[in-house]
Design goal:
Blueprint lengths: L5 H9 L17 H7 L5 H9 L4 H4 L5 E6 L16 H15 L2 E6 L5 H11 L5 E4 L6 H12 L4 E3 H21 L8 E4 L3 H13 L6 E5 L2 E2 L9 H4 L11 H5 L4 E4 L8 H5 L6 E4 L9 H7 L4 E4 L14 H10 L7 H14 L6 H6 L21 H15 L10 H11 L5 H12 L2 E5 L5 H12 L3 E6 L2 H11 L7 E3 L7 H14 L7 H7 L3 H10 L5 E4 L5 H11 L10 E8 L2 E6 L9 H17 L5 E5 L10 H16 L4 E6 L1 H5 L1 H7 L12 E3 L3 H14 L4 E8 L5 E3 L6 H27 L1
Parallel strand pairs: 1-2, 1-3, 3-4, 5-6, 5-8, 8-9, 9-10, 11-12, 11-14, 12-13, 14-21, 16-19, 17-18, 17-19
Antiparallel strand pairs: 6-7, 15-16, 15-20
Helix pairs in contact: 5-14, 6-7, 8-9, 8-15, 14-17, 15-17, 17-18, 19-31, 20-31, 22-23, 24-25, 26-27
Length: 766
Amino acid sequence: MSKITKEAALAYHNMGRPGKIEVKPTKPYSTQTDLSLAYSPGVAYPCLEIQQNPDEVYKYTDKGNLVAVITNGTAVLGLGNIGAMSGKPVMEGKGLLFKIYGGIDVFDIELDETDPDKFCETVEKIAPSFGGINLEDIKAPECFAIEERLKRTLDIPVMHDDQHGTAIISAAGLKNALEVAGKQIEEVKLVVNGAGAAAISCTKLYMALGLPKENILMLDSKGVITLDRPNLTPQKALFATSRKDVNTLEEALRGADVFVGLSKGNILSQDMIRSMNPNPIVFALANPVPEISYDEAIEARPDVIMSTGRSDYPNQINNVIGFPYIFRGALDVHAKAINEQMKMAAVHAIAELAKQPVPDTVNNIYHVNDLTFGPRYFIPKPVDPRLITEVSAAVAQAAIESGVARTPITDFQAYKENLRQMLGQETKLARTLHATAAKHPQRVVYAEGGHQTTMKAAIQAKQEGICQPILLGNPDRLNRVANRLKLDLTGIEIIDMRADKEQRRRATYAKHLAEKREREGYTFEVAYDKMYERNYFGMAMVENGDADAFITGLYTKYSDTIKAAKAVIGIRPEYRHFATMHILNTKRGIFYVADTLINHETNAETLTDIARLASNSVRFFNEEPIIAMLAHSNFGTDTTGTPQTVHKAVEIMQKQYPNLAIDGELQVNFALNKTLRDEKFPFTRLKGKNVNTLIFPDLSSSNNGYKLLQGLSPETEVIGPIQMGLNKPIHFTDFESSVRDIVNITAIAVLDAYVEKLIEKTKSAQ
């Protein structure tokens, strides 16, 4: 983790537009009609609907997705009472986290009011605007009274994150740490250093998990909190001990099993940790300096199970793991409160998630391959994309079961899919592809079996039930790679195409290839030599029925792969060319782009084949193709070069397919802007239609076109390249392909193979 300097922080907050969050319109506003609907007179109608039925406010406004992050600036981070205005950067930051992790809109509100009653009165008056209230950075003990009152007087979720966020995450961490340590929560001895809002809330939640009160020692700045101490607050009194033999932190830690620090840095010594029981659990959560550093703790006790509040060490207790998803679940059922059942549901969901296989995206971000449940990983990472589905759904379910939900969720699978799509983690298209493929799994051969990305993708595809993977490569090498990465290859076939035992299969494949290409220079000897190459062997497996689909391309030259595909598989007889397509899932919808990989040089015949292939492929994805043939000019304004070539291809296509919505040559802006296109060119066959398929005039423009959009709009999901026109399901990847990309291609390859089998079955029946 890079060091954060004052200069860097100030520059970050000052760059570009001031602040870290903004408000954006969500409805059209380009016409007078739009504005009249948005405001007067149209806005009167939803107002009256809400007047008649107040719950309709969730339907017609942003209330159900709007949270107020409110502070009075009396306990800002570790800075103390710096005032409401000074705390605004923190509240904006909280708003940013709400948005990027939970998709929740936020207004940050800084109240210049320290009196708890007046503070509450103000919040109560503005509460109708919001679906939830997140209290932030309010000092103890006032924060307890404020939260309790607002929970009592308001009918929307209220949570003081400094208390409950830390409590929920640390409780999930403690639950799992105890499991790693082999200890039972009913038996362990806990020492809590700190008696502020977070410490009190954490300890209460630990007790709810089963920790006996008599096993707890809590300390504040004066030492162990005992029953005979005068003037205890009600919150501290709850954890006061009757023991007389302990006064200091050093004394309290002797024979303890768990230490939780929510105090200040460097107050825990190595000797103190050495005095704890075997497999001690140490949560040093003071920020930015923990009670003891991770390295010092490990040095003192190699058996320590350690957590801090820092991101540069394992097992970070980070509130961002909780609050966006707790509010997300609460908001989605229009909850009246965040109750104890919902908080406990979040605890269990977070704890359980850490025991599941870690997504590749998480490993990649942290530059590791071995995040598995154990001493160095028992809390999910903040970037884990599954948090929003698992935690939000658990919280929503708890809200429903505990009776605080206004709008119950009936289909939680659909709910989770919507959450994934909302944050761009998964689209409906990808989900549909995977689900359909899982109904018809096929045998898929992966050329680069020893590549870690391929290996992870094959494992994931198998886990999802999409395919029966076959990896090409040396088994010993592949198993070494798998062991190093801690990957389980159980149930995955490995074939070494160069092994002696594959001699017969190489010969069979070579004989078939030589007979097929005997007039193209392929003798048996030439073909046999080719079978030592992974692309030729893998494609031959598909050609000869030993596999159903083949995927290659991570580190193979495209020119070599294309040559092998033409030789072993061949182009469908009704075409002279084959091509590839990329699917772009954008905010404006799904677009199909071709040819993105294969045909370097194009003429009218090439473009005609690409358009025909694209048309069939779009129908493969259950859409009606609306095709624009692109160029740098529109309809004859340039009669030379590329536009003329495109013009000829359009003529051929329109003559052969009179009912197909295809036209050009068109500039891309006219293709995508229906209003502009129809106004300028009312004769077009595309009139009144939204184009979904773009045929570029050459490989360079097509490849750069989709990559430009991907680069400028990272939220755009790109699936491809998708092969079109070969006789068998042979599909390609890019060298920069991620695990997810390859799994998506696998799903398409499986569907391709399944459809191929259906076609062959139909032909046989006839």
